[in-house]
Design goal:
The complex is a heterodimer. Chain A is mostly helical. Chain A folds into 4 domains: 32-145, no CATH class; 159-245, no CATH class; 252-355, no CATH class; 441-488, no CATH class. Helix content of chain A is 37%, strand content 0%. In chain A, α24 crosses α25 (474-481). By secondary structure, chain B is mostly beta strands. In chain B, the strands form 2 sheets. Chain B has a 22-stranded antiparallel beta barrel. In chain B, β7 and β8 form a beta hairpin. Classes of the chains: A mainly alpha, B mainly beta. Chains A and B meet through α13, α15, α16, α17 and α18 of A and β1, β4, β5, β6 and β7 of B.
Chain lengths: 488, 494
């Protein structure tokens, strides 16, 4: 069993090495026939490459023509089988057609008629220093004095088929396509109609620029453009899954990286989301906008078959939601409630503003229960925004034996940190009345602070307006004063 | 039982008649055990009086013989361990598509109980509470609601049973609204007449208050403004329970600078209530806020507390955070506050009338999965002070799960009571999104609380807390009421 594994492994390594070696050799040897070796034998290319001059003949030499010398007697035999069928690639070049048309065209311009060497032999080199077509020389003849990948939009179609038409072009070669200089220009990807969108527009009946369709097909565009089904320019391209061999990366535009983009993008887009629809589906919005979607959101297409998933949006806090925002959002949340509701549903607010009895932690950090006296006396945050002082604070203080309902009058002095606290509690009470109320009932205070049955200690302090209070609710006054409510 | 019901509901949803709905069931269970205290007494003749100390019981408990039944002195002694086991299930339902475009039904309710026989946990009575339950009809301009609802704003989250209508003017950011109905108590979904709101057997109004209010909001490219008015009236006597107004604003002065502020005015007392103004600057690698605020408590007029003239305190506070190196955030926060003159003549007792709070902390994202956190906090002021050091580590193996462990220590001196405390704690928590619709969270913590007193009442108040949470989300037509968060790709875009 182990031997079988070893054999298999060895075979795999050998086979893999052969494949790699073959591939490497193919790359290093673009023209396997040693043309210079035969330079003195053949004064003309057409001798072997008959198809260049005769219609219906193959461009490749026949086996018999090689064997006229390589018969094993005159010369050693060689293995040669002419290729049949079309050459894999995306060239729409035909030697015979090119020869027939190039001559008259050159005559019209006064140029020398091109020969085979014009394309297959470096300028100034010796006879039969042949190689695959030299693209730069093609461009020179065609008066395209630029790099191959920088030619004008329409020029690609001179020599190349569109990707969809080039059915024989293997995916590996598509993947190896070079990147045109235009694609590296700033803003090429994200400027929309001012970037690659503008370049993609063809002229006349050709809807898509040949410069795009040579390398790309609809599938490629769909990988980013979620509005591809609604975009005629993209639909004008044929479908071809091979186009996905070229990977596109969807980067966020610079505007999206602005600190206040989260806040302002709604103002910018308004009800029109046409620009957004290039990269974003409805799901991009709903990653953050958790409430009932606005019409602008609904105007976007939903992700689904035939459509890219689009830019994946990370739900994150806006810049102003800092670490202390939870304690300090009252003004902002009150003023801009509608802004809050774009991302937050009511349930989220209620989770703090109507807290759950079974809740272990959340708004307050771990250990806050032990610390809450110092946070509560001079309110670090407004406790009463989320807690009812009677249901929440007092009921718990009852359990902790801190409330007066069981103790006042028993003599168990809770405030034992200050001697005779009872006789000097006014300052503490006016400063932290909410804390007092979390343990004391009204009757505790009325024992002394009442004109009816109490000791008539006046509890009223700064800002007290008896007339105003009596006007608004005299019932409160009568709790201490009975029917004889004093006026000033 | 309730938990089981929640799970059962989650696993076998019954189709609703609406075209679309979203139902979220959130069940939480918590178990807490801590030592209770018992009130005890001894005859005054049994009190031990030692030199330089107050009176104590023979076994060393400080006693108070100043009042109460003559001839007896009172004190607290450690009681039996108490256990609270609150179990709550919150249901949130939104349904729409009843054949009327723009019509939505929303309900949020809670079932709660304390499974422990001692019933020590707050907020578990009554067992069933409806927080919100209303029908809403909304068009582009108009929104109308009828039922139990909350009105939110600068005057607080106010619940009421009634109706609300708001109108948004086309082409602008102006919105006006008004509402009215029978009010609920503050910060709780219960009427003020509920026995659950009266643990001290205090005075309570006989009827629920009538409530009306109005607000106007203006949303602009640069600012948001809102003004509110609300009054509550006791229907039995036709007198005010409250009458207040508030204004709030947020202004974006510059791309990174935001100013927010608000203030409340109490018509009943004729004074300004809580107010604040803040400026926040946010940049990518740092942010900071400075704020001036004034806090004054507010009391309904069916209580007498407002007549005791609670004085406000004013404060200046600020916070800042900076990311000096990628993944490391350092935070700082400080506040200084002063109470207004209280004019209380208390020569026998003096209390602090000002204080401060400060804290610093750091969070380090060591890797995308691991985060370390540490903080130091100190506060000093009237009533109580504290010093806290804590830290934690969080592991997020994926977007669907996190686990964390925290530990800390706290010193808490009190001003008015001999009950300073030293607390140490260790806790661990985990939160796992099991499926798109099922989330499970749990945490466990030990709190060692040592009470420091000069007598025998310095017993410990150690606690163990365990909680478990199960969230089930059901729904259809997710494109209309979508998930709050979708799986995301690091970096923000593909």
């Amino acid at each position: 069993m182990r031997a079988r594994w070893l054999v298999g492994l060895l075979a795999g390594i050998v086979a893999g090495s052969m494949v790699l070696a073959t591939g490497a050799a193919a790359q290093a040897r673009p023209d396997s026939f040693d043309h210079p070796e035969h330079a003195k034998l053949f004064p003309r290319c057409e001798t072997c490459h008959v198809g260049a001059v005769r219609e219906g003949a193959s461009i490749w030499p026949t086996t018999a023509s090689c064997e006229s010398c390589h018969d094993g007697t005159i010369e050693k035999r060689v293995r040669w089988t002419p290729r049949t069928g079309p050459v894999p690639g995306n060239l729409k070049f035909d030697h015979l057609v090119h020869r027939r048309s190039a001559g008259p065209a050159s005559a019209r311009t006064g140029a020398t008629a091109p020969t085979c060497a014009s394309c297959h032999q470096p300028t100034g080199s010796g006879w039969m220093t042949t190689r695959r077509a030299i693209v730069g020389q093609c461009l020179d003849c065609h008066k395209l004095p630029t790099e191959h990948l920088a030619v004008a939009d329409t020029a690609c179609a001179t020599c190349h088929l569109s990707l969809v038409e080039a059915r024989t072009l293997p995916e590996a070669r598509i993947k190896a396509f070079g990147t045109p200089p235009s694609h590296k220009a700033p803003g090429f990807m994200v400027k929309g109609l001012a970037g690659h969108g503008a370049l993609a527009k063809g002229t006349g009946p050709i809807k898509v620029a040949a410069s795009c369709s040579t390398c790309h097909a609809r599938d490629f565009c769909i990988s980013c453009h979620v509005n591809a089904p609604e975009t005629p320019l993209i639909q004008a391209l044929g479908p071809d899954p091979r186009s996905l061999a070229i990977k596109a990366e969807l980067k966020a535009p610079a505007s999206h990286r602005s600190v206040d983009f989260d806040r302002r993008h709604g103002v910018k887009t308004g009800p029109k989301t046409e620009k957004c629809s290039t990269c974003h589906t409805r799901e991009s919005c709903t990653a953050c906008h958790a409430g009932v979607p606005a019409p602008a959101v609904l105007a976007l297409a939903s992700a689904g078959p035939g459509r890219a998933e689009g830019a994946q949006v990370v739900r994150k806090k806006p810049a102003n939601h800092t670490a202390v925002f939870g304690n300090q959002h009252a003004s902002a949340a009150s003023a801009a409630e509608r802004s809050c509701s774009t991302c937050h549903v009511r349930t989220m607010c209620l989770s703090c503003h109507r807290p759950d009895a079974g809740r272990a932690s959340g708004f307050h950090p771990t250990g806050f229960l032990s610390r809450h006296p110092s946070a509560a006396y001079a309110r670090e945050a407004s406790c009463s925004d989320c807690h009812d002082s009677r249901q929440f604070c007092a009921s718990c203080h009852v359990q902790a034996g801190m409330t007066s309902s069981r103790l006042l009058g028993t003599g168990a002095n809770y405030h034992d940190g200050k001697r005779v606290f009872l006789f000097g509690h006014g300052q503490a009470a006016r400063q932290g009345l909410e804390s007092c109320v979390s343990c004391h009932a009204e009757r505790d205070c009325l024992t002394c602070h009442s004109s009816v049955g109490g000791r008539r200690f006046n509890p009223h302090g700064p800002g007290f307006d008896p007339n105003r209070l009596a006007r608004k609710n005299p019932q409160m006054c009568s709790a201490c004063h009975g029917l004889n409510i004093p006026r000033r | 039982m309730i938990l089981a019901a929640a799970v059962a509901a989650g696993l076998g949803p019954v189709p609703l008649l609406a075209q679309g709905y979203k139902l979220k069931l959130d069940a939480r269970y918590q178990s807490v055990s801590f030592r209770g205290i018992d009130l005890d007494s001894i005859p005054a003749s049994a009190v031990v009086q030692q030199a330089g100390q107050g009176p104590t019981s023979p076994d060393g408990f400080a006693v108070d013989c100043g009042s109460g039944t003559p001839g007896y002195c009172y004190y607290f002694r450690p009681g039996t361990r108490l256990r609270g086991q609150p179990l709550t299930t919150t249901a949130d339902l939104t349904a729409w598509g009843f054949g009327v475009r723009g019509l939505t039904i929303r309900a949020s309710g809670r079932v709660a109980t304390d499974l422990a026989s001692q019933a020590v946990w707050p907020g578990t009575e009554p067992n069933v509470v409806l927080t919100e339950g209303y029908a809403e009809y909304a068009t582009t301009e108009l929104t109308g609601r009828v039922g139990r609802q909350l009105v939110t704003g600068r005057l607080g989250y106010q619940g009421f049973d009634g109706g609300r209508a708001s109108y948004r003017f086309a082409g602008g950011g102006l919105e006006v609204g008004g509402y009215g109905g029978w009010g609920l108590a503050r910060a709780v979904a219960l009427p003020v007449t509920s026995p659950a709101l009266n643990p001290l057997d205090d005075y309570q109004p006989r009827s629920r208050q009538l409530l009306v209010g109005a607000d106007v909001a203006w949303r602009h490219r640069v600012f948001d403004l809102r003004a509110e008015y609300r009054r509550e009236v006791d229907p039995d006597v036709d007198y005010f329970v409250s009458e207040r107004a508030a204004a709030s604003a947020e202004v974006h002065l510059a791309r990174k600078l935001r100013v927010a502020g608000g203030a409340e005015y109490d018509f009943v007392n004729g004074w300004w209530g809580t107010a604040e103004a803040s400026a926040t600057y946010t940049d990518r690698r740092w942010y900071g806020t400075v704020e001036a605020r004034r806090y004054r408590p507010f009391f309904d007029l069916w209580t007498i507390w407002g007549a005791f003239s609670p004085v406000p305190f004013r404060s200046v506070r600020g916070n800042a955070a900076v990311e000096p190196i990628r993944g490391l955030w350092i935070r700082g926060q400080a506040e200084r506050y002063w109470f207004d003159p209280d004019e209380a003549e208390t020569p026998l007792v003096s209390a602090e009338d000002r204080g401060w709070r400060a804290q610093i902390g750091a969070t380090a994202s060591v890797t995308p999965q691991w985060t370390l956190e540490a903080g130091l906090r100190s506060e000093f002021g009237p009533g109580a002070s504290s010093r806290t050091v804590d830290g934690g580590i969080t592991w997020r193996p994926s977007d669907a799960a996190f686990f964390s462990a925290r530990a800390g220590t706290l010193d808490r001196p009190l001003e008015f009571r001999f009950s300073d405390a030293k607390v140490n704690w260790v806790s661990m928590s985990g939160d796992v999104k099991l499926t798109e619709r099922l989330r499970l969270a749990s945490d466990i913590g030990w709190f060692g609380e040592e009470r420091r007193r000069p007598d025998a009442a310095a017993f410990d108040l150690n606690q163990v807390r365990v909680s478990t949470r199960l969230v089930v989300t059901l729904g259809s037509a997710a494109d209309r009421l979508p998930r709050a968060a979708r799986p995301v790709t690091p970096g923000g875009s593909r």
